[in-house]
């Protein structure tokens, strides 16, 4: 199952609108106290870069999760084959079959009639 990617937040969208408005007044508008086109543009670009990096990490995590799922399936299949091969070579009632995780036929519960 793929992890949910994030999209630009309302704060990011609002900052882009404000930046556009500030630039329409003056390309290098500086309102004082560190509030300027340059500072808003820098902060907006940082947020965009972090969002891209975050989504890339999620994609990497998705890939690793898929690879892990594939390995789990391979392990399950291989483990089942080990049990089958042990049953074929030593028999289902052998201690070797039991050693690899099987239940000996002689040790299975007999169904009771009620």
Explained architecture:
By secondary structure, the protein is mainly α. It has one domain (10-107). 66% of the residues lie in helices and 4% in strands. It is built from 3 helices and 2 strands. The chain has helices spanning 10-25, 37-90, 95-99, and strands at residues 30-32, 35-36. A two-stranded antiparallel ribbon has the order 1-2. A hairpin with a 2-residue loop joins β1 (30-32) and β2. The longest helix is centred in the middle third of the chain and has 54 residues, at 37-90. The radius of gyration is 31 Å and the shape is rod-shaped. It starts with 9 loop residues before the first helix and ends in a 15-residue tail after the last helix.
Keywords:
114 residues, rod-shaped, 3 helices, mainly alpha, two-stranded antiparallel sheet
